[in-house]
Write a structure and sequence with these properties.
About 40% of the residues lie in helices and about 20% in strands. The chain is α/β, with parallel strands linked by helices and about 180 residues long. It is globular and about 40 Å long.
Length: about 180
């Protein structure tokens, strides 16, 4: 990617019903709205919608990271305890390193608002120079979880040598000194 190209961000919705057209995807648009509001203009979003199928999820993640060149890939859906919720497992297959603090932080914030959030299994990790973050499918949970981890994302991308993704408010990202 050249310096003049926008930073690429992937948004992957995981949903059987939405992928079949039986249900309106609300997770992907909630992620997109959050990104537009919290990151400075100038990034390019790449959206994907796949069923709750581990191979489809893993393939979409590899494509967004390796082929499209997304610095950040955010998934929504498939993080619960039901038998078809396999986003964390499909994500782990493609990760080089897991970043457990993201999931821990998101769950700690969410459980204060919704006691059943303890059932959520979102994870995050690194593939090459890409950060992948799993989120639940609920728009409110998406907002809460992203708000909890957004300060760390730009610094993580910087540490990975990925193209920058500055926050819209100009705030300084968290730094681990």
């Amino acid at each position: 990617m050249s310096a003049s190209e926008p930073t690429r961000v992937g948004v992957l919705t995981v949903s059987d019903r939405a992928s079949r057209g039986e249900y309106e995807d609300r997770g992907g648009p909630a992620v997109a709205e959050f990104l537009q509001r919290r990151f400075a203009p100038g990034f390019a979003r790449h959206d994907r919608l796949v069923p709750d199928d581990p191979d489809a999820i893993s393939a979409a993640l590899v494509e967004l990271c390796d082929t499209v060149g997304c610095s950040l890939v955010i998934t929504t859906g498939g993080t619960g305890p039901s038998p078809r919720d396999l986003t964390p497992e499909a994500t782990r297959v493609v990760l080089e390193r897991e970043l457990p603090g993201f999931g821990e932080r998101m769950r700690s914030i969410s459980v204060d608002r919704v006691p059943t959030a303890i059932l959520s299994r979102q994870i995050a990790g690194i593939r090459g120079r890409s950060l992948i973050v799993n989120l639940p499918g609920s728009p409110k949970a998406i907002e809460d979880c992203l708000e909890a981890v957004i300060p760390a994302i730009p610094h993580c991308l910087e540490l990975l040598g990925a193209p920058p993704l500055p926050l819209s408010d100009g705030s300084t990202p968290l730094r681990h000194e």
